[in-house]
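Quick entry between incubations.
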Amino acid sequence: MVNIIEIKKLTFKYPQQEAYNFNNFDLKIKKGEWLAIIGHNGSGKSTLVRLIDGLLAPESGEITVSGIKLTPETVWDVRSKIGMVFQNPDNQFVGANVEDDVAFGLENAAIPRDEMLKRVKEALDRVGMWKFADHEPVRLSGGQKQRVALAGIIALKPEIVILDEATSMLDPEGRRAVLEIIRELNQREHLTVISITHDIDEASKAQRVVVLDDGKIVQDDVPAEIFAHGSRLIKLGLEPPFSEKLKKELVEQGIKVPDEYLTKEGMVDWLWQLFSKQ
Amino acid sequence: MGKILLGRYVPGDSVVHHMDSRAKLILSFFFIIIIFLANNWQSYVLLFILTIGSIMAAKVNFGFFIKGVRPLIWLILFTVLLQVFFSSGGTVFWKWGPFNLSYYGLINGAYVFCRFVLIIFMSTLLTLTTAPLEIADALEKLMMPLKKIKVPVYEISLMLSIALRFVPTLMDETAKIMNAQRSRGVNFGEGSIMQQIKSVIPLLVPLFVSSFNRAEELATAMEARGYRGGEGRTKYRVHYWHTGDTVGCVIFVAVMIILLFVRHW
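Done. Structure below.
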């Protein structure tokens, strides 16, 4: 698989700060991959994705997105490859109503109107919001607004979707709906997904998890390996998955549990075997 | 806050609702100008017929218009009374110091009252039948010629549409902050004027700070979605000038011509 994003020797700090957020940072992301970036508050997750999108400029180092080297001249080309969904559903809603908001990015890209009408409808159908097309943002729930934000990105047909804690302000229902759409985009259209999250469900759906701590990668592995260390997760600002918590409780009850990470289904299978053996 | 009628849009399906927002905006301005041509009762009757006709064409509940006049009633009465008591001419009915009640004054007062009511009716009709966003669009289109003298028309209209979109959001937030501060013991609208002014601070400062944060996040989101300024964008919303708009303009111009004759009756 080709790398869609390559970061080499990235160095960055905010102008008013002394300490460096990133120092000689390297990261490669494969095309079609779903990567979750986790870490405690202030570990540099949001800064990293803003650097990738060119919203922040690095001090030195090189970022290549889809074969384009990020420079002040190419920043708009790079941005056209990336769709970003931010945390607060209200503060990224530009349009006066749903369809206007989805069209905003298309207007910026100077897409002809006929094409725009088609794409707006398609994108809103994808997220199941077409029947709300003429609704104003005040009449929508947080989850619906976030689905509109996603539609705005789907309409632009990017190669990479970045979710900057996009589900953190949603209720469980809205979160599930948004994640379902992301999963579909990733699997069916092979979009590269980078999600920054504190949510365990979101991280467990990823193919690879990168754990950041003060601008350094402390772990880079499949979710199962990351989740096998329950207590460490808490320190990293992530709640352990339910199966890990159950395992911990069982250990306290004196029951011997397997060391490796078990998914919910894996846990059910193991419990069922445990009793049939006795 | 529920009393504010400005920008309250009532969706509907009528001739006026379907008119081009540019036409409606132009006609509203035009109407306000021709009101000042009216100088006798015949001309006011003519304008009232035009206004009531427009309202009937819009099929909007008349109660909205009375509500539109109500908040301004004290201003109207004050102006009318000034006119009535300080104008001189014609038969004087009553006189005391600088005040006098004359035939001319009464007529003038009535005219001023009519003007106010007509202007409020027509502008209420505009906002009731036109979505705020359409008004913003119409303003952008009508301001286009100003681009020649380097007025940033796109930017003004973007600011206008964002401002309109955030009005309800900020209203919600204001209510939330007020309730949060109340729960911590702040009394809004009580005590002396100084105390009342002071009690607004715990509302205003958080509102300002959060607006700054919102602006920052919104700007980042807009940039991430490829916003590079007003030039070179295409438009999702388009407006078409229908025959109905031309008919509306013709009616208003015809009324103006009749008005010019009636004026010199």
